[in-house]
Write a structure and sequence with these properties.
The chain is of the alpha/beta class and 388 residues long. It is 35% helix and 23% strand. α9 packs antiparallel against α12, α9 runs parallel beside α15 and α11 packs antiparallel against α12.
């Protein structure tokens, strides 16, 4: 597991910093009373955090909660954090409104369960109405289809359990349909989820998706300033909210951020598949992979998608214009905003990577993902990697 950089948070962890908040603990309380369920509370924005910190990230949990609490300075904003901490018997749920934090203890220990997350969304939908919603996933990234590990799920299973991004996307997409497509932003606050595969999987989960192509730090520091700005500018959409997260983040916490407009992510099959057809039928010369500088995460290799298409165009000049058109679509429409950290070297990356499978068996492992059934990536890899 990739250990994130530990940031000394000093006074953030002091008890005095929450002295102005009314924190109430309710052991064994799983849901708010049925009386409130019949009278949903209305907000302009509801932001749901998932904090699976039952691992080496647990020291950052309480400082994040404090920063979120200080950030909510508007009666129009609600933030909820469902969290799992190392050593805790069960998950907790912190409901943060202006001047108040209510903490509930839940009756489950598994923060790597898609079913538990679905229950969280069902609970939120039963309690609140919002003009706009956002969902943020904290925790480690994993291999291509994994996210947010839990080292102790409350069962006899001793190995670390991960969430599956396809199952998770299905849960959020169903929730988004139920609330009339009001999820403005989904935030992969995880390492290495800035991939074509992850963004395409979540294309219907929200209007915009925010991710990091490479590593993120912890605990991150955008919370307070972003939420205060949102409280004064409630008309923001998901893309604009993502821009503020990037603006207010500390420079030592990230390499780059990518926001996609999912309206255009859904157009990928119509844009990429015709190009792949031309690539597979062209007289393509061997690609110099070393020049493309693949990067590695969790024992898997990735390559920047724009650099790949440009390298293909260089070796198949008859489709140069087709490659240029796709790169233009990707960089100017599908990617709403790519924000590079000026203090970090990003080697000309565009913001979205693509798995570079080591062999056909490696690729077969992920064939169930929609990106491989709806995009002709298998045909592309067979041409540029595995062609005899």
């Amino acid at each position: 597991m990739k250990r994130r950089k530990f940031i000394q948070y000093g006074a953030i962890g002091s008890a005095s910093s929450l002295a102005t908040f009314n924190i109430k603990n309710h052991p064994n309380q799983e849901l708010i009373s049925s009386e409130k369920m019949n009278n949903k509370q209305h907000y302009k924005w509801v932001i749901l955090y998932w904090m699976p910190y039952d691992n080496d990230l647990y020291p950052f949990g309480f400082p994040i909660l404090q920063m979120l609490a200080r950030g909510v300075q508007s009666d129009n904003i609600l933030v909820v954090v469902q969290a799992d901490f190392l050593g805790a018997n069960n998950l907790s749920r912190s409901i943060i409104t202006k001047g108040k934090v209510e903490v509930q203890q839940l009756k489950t220990a598994n923060s790597a369960s898609e079913e538990v997350f679905a229950e969280y969304l069902n609970w939120a939908n039963s309690q609140f109405v919002a003009n706009k919603w956002a969902i943020a996933f904290l925790g480690h990234g994993g291999q291509l289809d994994k996210i947010s590990p839990d080292v102790n799920t409350g069962t006899l299973q001793l190995e670390t359990q991960w969430m599956n991004i396809k199952k998770l996307s299905d849960v959020i997409t169903n929730f988004n349909r139920e609330i009339n497509s009001r999820v403005e932003l989904f935030f992969f606050q995880n390492c290495n989820k800035g991939t074509i595969e992850a963004h395409y999987t979540f294309r219907d989960a929200a209007n915009y998706t925010l991710s990091s192509q490479k590593l993120l730090g912890a605990p991150n520091y955008y919370y307070e300033s972003t939420l205060q700005f949102l409280g004064r500018n409630l008309e923001l959409n998901g893309g604009q909210l993502a821009e503020k997260i990037m603006k207010f983040e500390r420079s030592d916490m990230y390499n780059s951020y990518t926001v996609t407009n999912n309206q255009y992510v859904r157009e990928l099959p119509g844009k990429l598949n015709p190009l792949i057809d031309k690539i597979t039928s062209s007289k393509l010369k061997p690609i110099n992979w070393g020049e493309l500088k693949p990067y590695r995460y969790m024992d898997e290799d990735f390559i920047d998608v724009v650099l790949l298409i440009q390298a293909i165009a260089k070796e198949a000049t008859d489709i140069q214009n087709n490659c240029d058109d796709f790169v233009d679509f990707l960089k100017n429409l599908m990617i709403y905003k790519y924000h590079k950290n000026p203090a970090k070297a990003n080697s000309g990356l565009s913001g979205l990577g693509l798995l570079l499978p080591s062999n056909k068996e490696h690729l077969q492992k992920y064939r169930y993902l929609p990106v491989f059934s709806e995009l002709k990536l298998v045909e592309l890899f067979n041409t540029i990697l595995f062609k005899n």
